[in-house]
Amino acid sequence: MSAPIMHQPHPADADAAWRVLRQGLAEQAEGMAAAALRLPARDAAADGEWLLLRGEAVLAQGRAGEAVRWFRLACRGSLEDARSGDRLDGLARALVASANGGADGAANEAHHAARMALALAPAMADGWAALASGLEDCAAADRAVARALVVVPGHGAALCRQARGIARAAGAAAACNFLVRRGRLDAVGRSAGRSADRRFLELLHDAGLHAYDAGRMGEAAERLRQVEAAAAGSAPSALVLGFLALRQWRLDEALDWFGKAVVRAPRAPGGHAGRVRALVAAGRLGEALDALRAGCAAAPGDPTLLMLFADLTMRLPGAGYAADRALVLDCLTRPGIEPERIAPCALRLALAEDGLEDLLALAGDLDRDEDGGAAAGDALRACWLRPARLAALEGELARPLLRRIPVPDIRLERLLTALRDALVALLDEGMGLPAAAFGPAVTLAMQAFNTGFAWEETPELAERAERLAARLADRAAGPLDDAGRLTLAALAQCRLLPEAAARLADGDEELGRLVDRHIREPARERMLAQRLARSEPGDEVTRRVAGQYAEHPYPAWTDVFRPPPHSPGLFLRWALPCRSDLPAPPDDLRILVAGCGSGMHPVGIAMRYPRARVVALDISLPSLGRAMRMAERLGVGNIAFHHADLRHWPGDGARFDLIECVGVLHHLERPLEGWQALLRHLAPDGLLKIGLYSDIARRQVTRASAWLAAEGYRPTPAGIRAARAALARHPDHKALAGWRDCATAGGFRDLLMHACEHRFTLPQIGETLDALGLEFLGFDSLDPALAASYRRHAPQATPQDAAPDLTMDDLRCWDRFERDHPASFLGMYQFFCRLRSSAGRTPAPEPARGPARSG
Question: What is the pTM assigned to this prediction?
């Protein structure tokens, strides 16, 4: 029986399929090629044509890896026919696309295929363009592009390669301007189906992201929406469109875009973080917590997600976090996270699950009648004799919590204070304690140091500790026994760790940690501070303030949030979401931090903007020593520290793009002088960020401060310890004892016993801005819940105003809002401003201000 006659693919059929592909119908063209290649009888020439067509159709749909396969099959035949160059060119382009997607070795193979194609057809523009894409040598690539453009002046791939070279040298915006001049960019959205246009879409995508980075919101939205309409969007494009919707408070739209970003890149943290921020802004905190858990599971260890989680635990303190124990531990221990934020949640878990509540119950009995208090004291002494009872202090959460940060909890502090007293008493009495007591003793010493030794002390404790120190000094040099190690840990709890401990700690890892914290790190800070040229304070008030921060550098911090580095323009969009008229500052902007304290502020800025040049000033040498050591420890090298009064710092005529002065001006005797000094260093188009205390928000603090002063408490170490204890017992003020600042001696002094403090109202700030010729731009990085509440109440400057302040930049409206919501600025007002036009500017008078507190 004869074989059936099979239909042979005809060149005309292939021509029809090519026409379909050129019309942008790549999927239909692929189907035609697949159908032809399924036929059992085909000649070699037709086979090669259909394989080439299928490769081009698959590549046009963005499946570069699969396209490589079809082009390789097409190249298996003769390389001497008229289509050989086309097949090699297609393979080169697919390999280039595959290499861009991360395929190993694809770039080298693409380079080889393009050279073979050009050997067969030197006039082939596609081959020259593909060769350029495979070349690492930029000059050689540019020559290949030029050759392609000689062959075909408007060749799409060559223009794209040329535009990418421009983008590399001058940025995506310049590349897009080049394509606009060539008449190619605006046609992208209308003809996205062809592979050349896909390359244009990539540039359009990059241009949209660049416009976003540069602060051109309208252009970014237009470009990226074109890309999305052409079904060429990416996770970054969806992320940016989500941010643009979020900053305009289109929350449902923002959630939709962030959802797309998560689908496109499920393991990337950006989409998850965007969803959380949008849900928090909408007040859907339970959903935000679920989204955070999903994000942390998809991108474990991401610092942004962990910081959002820590913040959410403070917004939702009553939620159950038992299942999130690993996340809480991550927030406590992972570098690049501020562990203070997770402390309340970590403490609640440690109390509930690690047995810490049982120990706290013992401390709670200390204030009972004499018999009950004595029994509680005996029970705490017994804990040192049987250290298994202290295992809760060494628990998975309690140990890093107590060793890294000061814990603001009055009940816990009373327990640790009583345990310290019991340990010192037992050692002074010569009681032999088990070696297992050493770990909990070190933990107590670390926490005592973290608080700045703020716990109450009795004369009896001081006498006992002095005797222990004398006995230890009499010991002969040599290795320490268990009693000696415990004695050193006990002395460290009382600020009496001797310098000799550095020698005794050799080879002792736990004791070495104590020595590092108590001896070596302070010594390093003193050495670093000595390198700075000294400057004397300009007046008596400034001398008192400098003395305060010399004794208590502020703030106490162990780490700083380290998000991925980003452009200053991106930060400004988050900080001032309702402003679209701000030019993007350069990546290498000059930043002045005036009043840098112990360094948390400038170190965070320098890590956020690694190309910036940061100058940090402070009047306290010990604070600068702490700042320099932390910068050294974190590997931050783009900060220059100066010891100076900001009012008298010459600065060698330097002008800065951004000046940040947060929590400083209100500690000057005449704040306006400091403000005027800052303006002398501000570039004409620079931004100024100011932080000032709110008179309305701090009324509770002001009352407590006045009470402490009236009672005669002084800011000495003993006076601060006594004042903290008195505050914790006062019925009207004890709520303040749970504030984070009150957990440390330095924070307590800064909050309630400061040498000089002024407080301001928003109308006073408005008057000062007007007098100085400054324009209020908005509050920095408003809490989403606060911003949502403000928009919900839609305040008006006066009852007669028809329109509410939805741009959130009217100080009169904010004043009305704050009077109804007095806790809105509990920390301080932090806002951006800039110079108005210099025309008609008049000298500024001394502004009105709130009542001063000076001690």
Answer: 0.77
